[in-house]
Amino acid sequence: MNEIPIEFWFEFASTYSYVGIERLPTFSAPFVLRPFLLGPVFAAQGLSDSPFNVYPVKGRYMRRDMERLCAEAEIPFRWPSVFPRGSLLATRIAIAHDSEPWLLDFCRRVYRANFAEDRAIDRAEVIQEIAEELHLPFAALRASAERPETKQALREQTARASELGIFGAPTLRVGDELFWGSDRMDHALRFWTRQGAMPARG
Amino acid sequence: MNEIPIEFWFEFASTYSYVGIERLPTFSAPFVLRPFLLGPVFAAQGLSDSPFNVYPVKGRYMRRDMERLCAEAEIPFRWPSVFPRGSLLATRIAIAHDSEPWLLDFCRRVYRANFAEDRAIDRAEVIQEIAEELHLPFAALRASAERPETKQALREQTARASELGIFGAPTLRVGDELFWGSDRMDHALRFWTRQGAMPARG
């Protein structure tokens, strides 16, 4: 039995990460959450904004694609009035607590706030409301997010994303293989299941 | 029974169009082939080259993703020594004969030449070899490709792609809905099957 977990790299502003994380509770492989920030990853590619804003025709398509995907999967979705939305506090909380059993629930609530309820997840009050819904101690979470080592850990994880060749989110990592997009989750799972049976890198 | 065909918009230089077209023979919906050129479509987005060249980290990922997808689907694949490869003659032949029963076979052979055999599909000799393998009269095909109305038809089809909101290939079109990428073919099929049951545009 393969026990190496699949890494799920995500960012709270990413629409397809929302679709991806909604599938994780039914995922048939162990996984670990790898929060990071897309902004510096895009900047490393020479992009000053989300590709969906840099290329509006792609952005319009993505919005419709999200509507259809979420309708099919019965995931609530409403286009947020701000895109992409800053998520520094939520991301720092996530990385400071990346082994906690409540983290997946916390992340899903943050995504729903952003993409189903159009709430300003860049505001501490909204993150506080989410924490309270989950009976998590917001003051302690906020303090952990503000620690220098947390800030540094997020900077390092984001730099690591670029080093690994990650350029968007969600990205699933299985060994040295990357699978980009919520539509590659099944592929990543199949790869995880039969690791070693894939073709050599060309 | 829904009889409106799904439009398959493709370009011969597009890797994922190759994956897509390889699936078309088993596609459970009627389809029509819509050849166009990505170059002008990318230019309309401000891109001077394939996004996979403009963003090399994405290009490296795509190459590996293609290897894995093709291995899984048992589609022969070898990275072409030139990417993207010009395909003006083949595309003009395709648009001049877009209702011919042999067109799908012709297109599949052109894709295999480019992405499995690393042959220079931008050279007339290679297109001639492909035509001869299929017992098609190359001289007549070439003459049809050179007609001013064929050239104009391709310009118009390419402009139409941009007008429709197409920004990459393959794109499947079902009514007014676009589905981008070989990984959206199942989604397009489901949409085609239950047309009218999808959410309103947001």
Structural summary, described in words:
The structure is a homodimer of 202-residue chains. By secondary structure, chain A is of the alpha+beta class. Chain A has ten helices and four strands, in the order E-H-E-H-H-H-H-H-H-H-H-E-E-H. Chain A has helices at 15-23, 38-44, 51-54, 56-73, 88-96, 103-115, 124-133, 138-146, 148-164, 185-193, and strands spanning 6-10, 31-35, 171-174, 177-180. Chain A has a four-stranded mixed β-sheet, sandwiched between helices. In chain A, strand 1, helix 1 (15-23) and strand 2 form a beta-alpha-beta unit. The radius of gyration of chain A is 17 Å and the shape is globular. Chain A starts with 5 loop residues before the first strand and ends in a 9-residue tail after the last helix. The interface between A and B is large, with 36 and 36 residues.
Entry keywords:
4-stranded mixed sheet; 10 helices; 52% helix; 202 residues; homodimer; alpha+beta
N to C succession of SSEs of chain A: EHEHHHHHHHHEEH
> What is the overall shape of chain A?
globular
Q: Into which percent range does the helicity of residues of chain A fall? A: 40-55%
Q: Which whole number gives the mean pLDDT of chain A?
A: 94
According to DSSP, the number of beta strands of chain A is 4
Structural category of chain A is: alpha+beta
Low-confidence stretches of chain A: none
Q: How many helices of chain A?
A: 10
Distance between the termini of chain A: 28 Å
Most extensive interface: A-B, 36 and 36 residues
Q: What integer value in Å does the Rg of chain A equal? A: 17 Å
Q: Describe the oligomeric state of these chains in a short phrase.
A: homodimer
Task: Characterize the main sheet of chain A.
Answer: 4 strands, mixed
Strand content of chain A: 5-15%
The largest beta-sheet of chain A arranges its strands as 2-1-3-4
